[in-house]
Amino acid sequence: MKSFTYQGNPSRVVFGTGALQKLAEEIERLGAERALILTTPEQRDLGEEISQLIGQRSAGVYAEAVMHVPLEVAQAACAEAAKRGADCCVAVGGGSTIGLGKAIALDSGLPILAVPTTYAGSEMTPIWGLTENRLKKTGRDSRVLPRTVIYDPRLTHTLPAEISACSGMNAMAHAVEALYAQDANPVISLMAEESIRALANALPAVVADPHDASAREEALYGAWLAGICLGAVGMAIHHKLCHTLGGTFNLPHAQAHAIMLPHSAHYNREAAASQLRRAARALGGVEAEEVGPLIYELNRKLGIPLALEAVGFPVEGPAETARIACESPYYNPRPFERAAIEQMLQRARSGMAPA
């Protein structure tokens, strides 16, 4: 066995149907008294419900979270938290809202309690991201790791089938890349394989019946594991490309991840063959070269758009994305090859199967 280092992130997880009812208790456990509740504009009503749930501990609802955390939005949120005298934030939603909470924590040190309503996984990571001048910058800082995460599967029941599918495949991307991360280790690889299995099993059932409680629980369980993977090890080419697609072209985060994942995995099929065999096994296959096609077919089954063009990727996008990615590449088991990456992005833009 190869030598490895494993560092677990110190967060508390409360998982289960009805777990949201423990929110006030968890705020008190942190020693906090005024929680600013963060949501997107679309989830303001849920934020107001949660504000009522925690009563006098609420500092109100701030419903301004948007995709990719633009710098100016983060700065406004920090000012609002200070104005309201908040001593913690409750981030209710997906990656956009939790990302906004992290931006506040990075600036002010306020602790975060996360209440995910999607499968994004950001709640389990010390990774933050800010977008300025069409470029998304990311980093790691222990201050932004949510202190407590409350997973209540009931909060995902109203997530539409198409968004559930893309969000779940976004989570799967974290697990797939964790298998061949530069700092991969046996503990995280076990979690990654189990995450892929759970998501692949649950997501078709969620799409068939968004109110299937058992499927929702399994999908959220898989997303939790994927979030641990994302927070514990580095990512590779897939995440680099998707950060560029979001930061530079403002493509929807989850859809971009879902569409790109089959292509990114296929790019690494030879350089990370032994690792991707574990992903193949979790998806019902055997060999590394099956992973990309299996994920592509799963996307098709889930009704996910297969083409980046369908979510706004322009004709000049492949060349520009390949250039940006190759100028500041992440670690990847196969070197960043500009021509091959541009060709891969052209296939993804057109909705073609990985090749």
Automatic annotation (TrEMBL):
<dbReference type="InterPro" id="IPR001670">
    <property type="entry name" value="ADH_Fe/GldA"/>
</dbReference>
<dbReference type="InterPro" id="IPR056798">
    <property type="entry name" value="ADH_Fe_C"/>
</dbReference>
<dbReference type="GO" id="GO:0046872">
    <property type="term" value="F:metal ion binding"/>
</dbReference>
<keyword id="KW-0560">Oxidoreductase</keyword>
<dbReference type="GO" id="GO:0018506">
    <property type="term" value="F:maleylacetate reductase activity"/>
</dbReference>
<keyword id="KW-0520">NAD</keyword>
<feature type="domain" description="Alcohol dehydrogenase iron-type/glycerol dehydrogenase GldA">
    <location>
        <begin position="10"/>
        <end position="153"/>
    </location>
</feature>
<feature type="domain" description="Fe-containing alcohol dehydrogenase-like C-terminal">
    <location>
        <begin position="165"/>
        <end position="348"/>
    </location>
</feature>
<protein>
    <submittedName>
        <fullName>Maleylacetate reductase</fullName>
    </submittedName>
</protein>
<dbReference type="InterPro" id="IPR034786">
    <property type="entry name" value="MAR"/>
</dbReference>
<dbReference type="Pfam" id="PF00465">
    <property type="entry name" value="Fe-ADH"/>
</dbReference>
<comment type="similarity">
    <text>Belongs to the iron-containing alcohol dehydrogenase family.</text>
</comment>
<dbReference type="GO" id="GO:0004022">
    <property type="term" value="F:alcohol dehydrogenase (NAD+) activity"/>
</dbReference>
<dbReference type="Pfam" id="PF25137">
    <property type="entry name" value="ADH_Fe_C"/>
</dbReference>
<dbReference type="InterPro" id="IPR039697">
    <property type="entry name" value="Alcohol_dehydrogenase_Fe"/>
</dbReference>
